[in-house]
Amino acid sequence: MAKKSDDMQAAQEKDREKWMARFQLCLVKQPGVDRQVVLQAIKEVTAHCDETG
User: What radius of gyration, in Å, describes the C-alpha atoms of the chain?
Assistant: First the structure.
């Protein structure tokens, strides 16, 4: 049973990483959005995900 849970957790982590990469790419493509804004947005999203699970 632990194997299935570990597999599910790994899949969720992979999904989260894919989502974060797409989010970052979308921000970088926006005109006038500099690196500091992207980093702050990622920090805020990461904090929200950590808080809410």
Answer: 14
Helices (H), 1-53: 2-29, 35-52
Do residues 41 and 20 make contact, with C-beta atoms less than 8 angstroms apart?
Answer: no
How does pLDDT run along the chain (53 residues), one tens digit per residue? 567 788 888 998 899 899 999 999 999 999 999 999 999 999 999 899 889 87
Ramachandran quadrant class, 5 (left: phi over 0; alpha: psi -120 to 50; beta: rest): alpha
Tokens at 26, concatenated: 């979308």
